[in-house]
Structures are given as structure tokens and as C-alpha cells.
Amino acid sequence: MPEVLTSRESFSTHEGFKTNVVNALQLAKKQLESKNEKANFIRIIMRFPKIRAVFDRLRAIHARCDKSGDGEVDVEELTEAMTELFNEGRAEGRDPIKPSVIARTLSLSVVEVDGEGEKKKQGLDVKQFIVMCVIGFILAEDNKGLSTFGGMLASKDDAYRLAMTDVVTAYLSFDREGKGYFTADEFSGFMTVSKRADAAKSFFTDERWTELDVTGDGKVEFEEFVYAFSKWVSDDDDDDEDEEEEGRNRSKNPLTPRITLALQLSKSILDKQKKDVNFMRIIMRFPKIHQVFDRIRSTHEKYDITKDGHLQLKELNDAMNELMSNQTEGSADAIDPNHIENIFMLSDLDHHGLEEGLDMKEFIVFCAVGFILAEAGGKSAKLMTGRVSDNDKEYRAAMMDIVGAYLTFDKEGKGYFTSNEMHTAVINCGKKDAGSLLTPERWRELDIDSSGRVDFEEWVHAFSTWVTAGDDEDE
Fold first, then answer.
1. How many other C-beta atoms lie within 10 A of the C-beta of residue 376?
2. Is there a contact between 451 and 240 (Cβ–Cβ < 8 Å)?
3. Which of 85, 221, 277, 287 gives 152 a disulfide partner, CB atoms 3.0 to 4.6 angstroms apart?
């Protein structure tokens, strides 16, 4: 067994940085031993859904950090994001941010090689960003004075902390000595000693080893493991993309992570205002929300030039150009057609496409998505729906009710909720009426794509049906 490293090395050199990572891994190993716990990867597989929820949040944070929109986060963007977290008090008691630590963390997290087996010099994509967060987390756990991005995210966030701990524990299932890497023999040895060998062998195939050993040098370092692990946790994302190939393809829409971020910001606002999200209370506000929906219906009818019950993309753009009266071509307030098309495709829940357009309920989805994106700022703040809400208290209240009702079930603001989460929320509500409203039939109305989980757009579509129930009979 290697000697436990006790002295901290300099973060200014690659070797010193790696030594500090090994120090942190050995500390994590000792903490497990002190609790009489063993690193058990199979048990952690059962926690993949919760880990995935945290990774989804990290994807949203990555999108927010990526100011250039190139899909990668560079040193400058990372420094800006870290400074923002530091100023928010997320590094209380820690030293100021050190550029050398930022640069070394980013460099170590670039887990991708070129044709010659050398690491590429670039910014961080989403999976590499997750690697950076995990490395930053364990370094901050070992050194209480060190400010890292991953460490600051752990401040007052138990779900994040638990997910990061699970990643480290999963790694230590193979690197039993905490030496900073494990070999193919150790990888195979895990399956031999596991009490659930059959389950282990079905998961840890030769293909898994190939995914782990990115550099092909016969050993897997900590950052390589985290890179592969992030893919395993989100493995069904690729299946989702295949299923959505002819649909709205939500997973590939560049606005999806920004919606998740906007939901988290909304959750943070509600938390700061100490407003307990209560679905039953929002049901009592259905009449007022209905009034706002009636106004949205009028707007939909006004700009439905063809009178076919749908707003095509061109009609939608015409409506937005008129409502944003100060819009002038080439100005800073100009509408980005690609941006509007992306929201349009997210709202197209019946998959009819750009030519057929959005029906009234899908237009409500469009407005709600535009509202939360506007709340998050950036380009989305130029949207009609956000601009309207600035001067319309009733509209803003209705949109916040939609978001608040959604967050009753998606407690973490991760961008979706499952039937189990919905069931738990109903039980915790303690109101008899809630159980009668949120029935299996309601779930089928919510889960439009039958994926087993409900995203924000699906929620708004179903919610609009509930609020306007009876309108068709009235007509």
C-alpha cells in the first residue's frame, strides 16, 4: 500500500497538482474507512437517477458559463463564473481565487486525445466540465482554504455534495489504495470480489474498459474515470435523442440547458422569498390564471392570419415584431430568428413542425418558456413574453404560478420530474383534493412522449388544459 501523502504540494506545477489530487483521494478513502463503509459501485448504480439530476444541473451551469456559445468553457469564462460564485459568498472562509489553480484544474480536466494520443488543448465540453467540478470538489474537501469551482458549488447544496461523493466512492471501488489510477487487472479484480459478480460482469464489459482508458496507456486515472462515468450515468440520453429524431429533439435543442438554469434561478428566488411552493394554493388561483390564458388566446387568434387554429413561424415573428414596438432591424433589440425557432420547436409538442405551427395550448407553452428564459437574462430577455411581463403584474403572476406549480414536483429544478416524484409530492401535500386531481389519467396527460418523465414544456401544456377545462363545453 502506498504511503499516505500528508504534505500539500504546489498547485503551480502539473506534478504538484496531481499529487494534491491523490492526497484528496486518499482522504476520501480514509473517511470511508472511518465510517466502516466500503466503496461499492453496484450500490451506486442504483443512485444513478439522483446523480444524473445533479449532472443535468451542471449541464445548465455549463451553458450559462459558455458566454461565447461555442459549446466549451475556457479559462476566461471559468474565471468569470468563479468570481461570481465567490462574490455570492459560496467560498466563505476560503482563500481568494488563484489563476494557477483554475488553469491546472482546466488542463487536467481536458480528457480527450488527438490522433497521436496527446491531450487536446481546448476549453471544456460538458463532460469535461463535470470532470472539473468533481476534481475541484475533492481538492476543496482536502484543503479547506482552497477556492475551486466544484468546491464552491458544494456550499449549502447537499444533493450536489452527495453526488460528488458518490462519484469518488465509485472510483475507489477500483482504485482500492487511492493511488490516483487503476489498471485493467484491478478493473477485472473488482468483478471477482464483488458480491454481485453477475451484475458487475453485465455492466463492466470490454467496451466499458475502452471508454475508461481514454489515452490507451493501460491505466485509468481519476479524471478519465469521471469522464466515462458521466457518460454512463446519462447513457439513456442517446436513446432519447434517437426517439426524438423526428420530433422536437429536446435533448439537442441549445435552449434546453438554459431552461434548466432558468428553473433553478426561479427556485432560488422562491427560496429567498421563503415562499413554500404549494400546488393546492395555486389551484385556488386558476380563475386568475384563466384570465391571462384568455388574453393569450386572443393574441393567438389575432395573429393567426390563415385562421387554421395554428400560428406558423412567420405569423409568430410578425406578432413579436409588432408587440416589440421598438424593434428595428440591426439594433441591439433585434430578434434572433434561430432563437425563436428553437423555442418554437420546444413548444411543438404534437411534432407537426414549422409549417403547421403552434395551436393555442402550444402557444401558451411558447409564452411560458419565453418568460422563464427572459427571467434568466441574456438574449432571451429580448423575447416578447419577457418584455410583456415587465409591465404586466397579472401576466407575471400567472407565469410564476405555472413555474411554482411545476417546482412542486421537480424539487431540485433539474428540468423534469418522474411519476415517483409526483406521487411523493402528492402524499406530502396532505390534502385529499390533491389525490383526486393528480390521478394516473393526469399523469398520462402530462407525459406526452411516454418517456416516464415530464419536462417543463409538457407540464405547461397539461397545466393549460386543467386551467381551461370546460372551455370547449362552453363554446
1. 20
2. yes
3. 85
Alpha-carbon distance 130 to 142, whole Å? Answer: 19
Q: How far apart are CA 457 and CA 260, in angstroms?
A: 11
3-state secondary structure of 68: coil
> How many other CB atoms are there within 10 angstroms of residue 25's CB atom?
23
Report, in angstroms and rounded to the nearest whole number, the Rg of the chain calculated over CA atoms: 24
Residues 6 or more apart whose CB falls under 8 angstroms from that of 57 comprise: 160, 260, 264, 412, 413, 414
Helix (H) / strand (E) containing 359: none
In the chain, what is the straight-line distance between the N-terminal and C-terminal CA atoms, in Å?
78
Is the pTM higher than 0.90? The answer reads no
Cell of 338: 434561430
- Give burial (CB, 10 Å; 0-12/13-18/19+) of 441: exposed
- Return the SS3 of 311: strand
Maximum average pLDDT range among 245-249, 274-278, 434-438: 274-278
Q: Up-side HSE of residue 242: CA atoms within 13 Å toward CB?
A: 5
Q: Report the b/e string of 198-226 with b at 16+ CB within 10 A.
A: eebeeebeeeeeebbbbeeeebbbbbbbb
Determine the pLDDT at residue 44.
Answer: 83
pLDDT tens, residue by residue, 35-54: 887 777 777 877 887 888 88
Per-residue confidence (pLDDT) for residue 329, from 0 to 100: 44
